[in-house]
From TrEMBL:
<protein>
    <recommendedName>
        <fullName>Pseudouridine synthase</fullName>
        <ecNumber>5.4.99.-</ecNumber>
    </recommendedName>
</protein>
<feature type="domain" description="Pseudouridine synthase RsuA/RluA-like">
    <location>
        <begin position="95"/>
        <end position="245"/>
    </location>
</feature>
<dbReference type="GO" id="GO:0009982">
    <property type="term" value="F:pseudouridine synthase activity"/>
</dbReference>
<keyword id="KW-0413">Isomerase</keyword>
<comment type="function">
    <text>Responsible for synthesis of pseudouridine from uracil.</text>
</comment>
<dbReference type="InterPro" id="IPR006145">
    <property type="entry name" value="PsdUridine_synth_RsuA/RluA"/>
</dbReference>
<dbReference type="InterPro" id="IPR020103">
    <property type="entry name" value="PsdUridine_synth_cat_dom_sf"/>
</dbReference>
<keyword id="KW-0694">RNA-binding</keyword>
<dbReference type="GO" id="GO:0003723">
    <property type="term" value="F:RNA binding"/>
</dbReference>
<dbReference type="GO" id="GO:0000455">
    <property type="term" value="P:enzyme-directed rRNA pseudouridine synthesis"/>
</dbReference>
<comment type="similarity">
    <text>Belongs to the pseudouridine synthase RluA family.</text>
</comment>
<dbReference type="InterPro" id="IPR006224">
    <property type="entry name" value="PsdUridine_synth_RluA-like_CS"/>
</dbReference>
<dbReference type="GO" id="GO:0140098">
    <property type="term" value="F:catalytic activity, acting on RNA"/>
</dbReference>
<dbReference type="InterPro" id="IPR050188">
    <property type="entry name" value="RluA_PseudoU_synthase"/>
</dbReference>
<dbReference type="InterPro" id="IPR006225">
    <property type="entry name" value="PsdUridine_synth_RluC/D"/>
</dbReference>
<feature type="active site">
    <location>
        <position position="142"/>
    </location>
</feature>
<dbReference type="Pfam" id="PF00849">
    <property type="entry name" value="PseudoU_synth_2"/>
</dbReference>
């Protein structure tokens, strides 16, 4: 069974710099509304208003005009099992939600395994607060990875944040614990990543792969471990895990790219910082999530 998302109405006042432009130009060029989403709004009808009057995208707008755009309703799939789990909310408003994901929880369940997930916890959170929204993850973390996940509450917010991500304006930093003492304080890995031919999950460094760049800084070393801060220029699947293993310093607890022995520890990778511009207001936002306590135990 499925139900629809609550109506989302976006509202702006026209500034002097947009005086005399068409509504289409305002929405596409100033507010970064995608061509596809704008076409859907036009098709549904009753979605574009200027000063309370329904208009078309050809309408000329003027300073101080009030623009209202109603987004097409989205279908909320019941295939994602809602989960009444603790949710650590870092920030929330009508457009986005930033949470600190715990270890051991998938971001989104696979099609064939409907298990408790961050998506399910977020949908339950929405329901508890009377918000009918679907789940739009701007970034996803692996099951063991902890830290910041940015979630858009509607398609427009998702599109704007995804565009920032492609343009390098949405910055994320990670902290990881790896095996071995890294001899460099700073370094970068420029190595393309491709799917391993014999696996649907595993990735490898390959000349035929997609461009991938990871920058790192060694911030601590102790016994046989190093703690590193990492910043991604690209966002390939398992990028940090693949690059650090390829460099010779696999993540602690990573049995896919490191030791095949069954380590009891979970992969020590934490999404600790995110910076971006708010998809609606354009204001700069920066959030961080504290390291889980188990990271410190390896450096006592």
């Amino acid at each position: 069974m499925m139900n629809e998302q609550s109506p989302i109405v976006l509202s702006w006042y026209v500034t002097r710099q947009c005086h005399g432009v068409t509504l289409k130009s305002f929405l596409r060029e100033q507010k970064n509304l995608s061509r596809k989403l704008l076409a859907e709004i036009k098709f549904q009808g009753g979605g574009l208003f200027v000063n309370g009057k329904e208009v078309t995208v050809k309408e000329t707008i003027y300073e101080d005009d009030h623009i209202e755009v109603t987004l097409p309703p989205e279908i909320i799939s019941k295939k994602i099992m809602k989960a009444d789990l603790p949710l650590e909310v870092i920030y929330e408003d009508d457009h986005l939600l930033v949470v600190n994901k715990p270890s051991g929880l998938v971001t989104i369940p696979t099609h064939d395994v409907n298990e408790p997930s961050l998506a399910g916890a977020v949908l339950q959170h929405y329901e508890n607060n009377g918000w009918g929204a679907t789940f739009h993850a701007v970034n996803r973390l692996d099951r063991d990875t902890t830290g910041i996940v940015i979630i858009a509450k509607h398609r427009y917010a998702h599109e704007v944040l995804a565009m920032q991500q492609r343009a390098g304006k949405l910055e994320r930093e990670y902290i990881a614990v790896v095996h071995g003492i890294i001899p460099w304080q700073f370094g970068s890995v420029h190595a393309p990543i491709a799917r391993k031919p014999t696996s649907i999950i595993e990735r490898v460094v390959s000349e035929k792969g997609q461009h991938a760049v990871t920058h790192f800084e060694t911030i601590a070393s102790h016994h046989h471990y190093s703690m590193v801060k990492l910043r991604l220029e690209t966002g390939r699947t398992h990028q940090i895990r693949v690059h650090m293993a390829w460099l010779g310093y696999p993540l602690v607890g990573d049995t896919l790219y490191g030791s095949r022995s069954s380590e009891k520890r979970r992969t020590l990778l934490h999404s600790y910082k995110a910076e971006f511009y708010h998809p609606f207001t354009g204001e700069h936002h920066c959030y961080s999530a504290p390291l889980p306590p188990r990271y410190a135990t390896l450096f006592k």
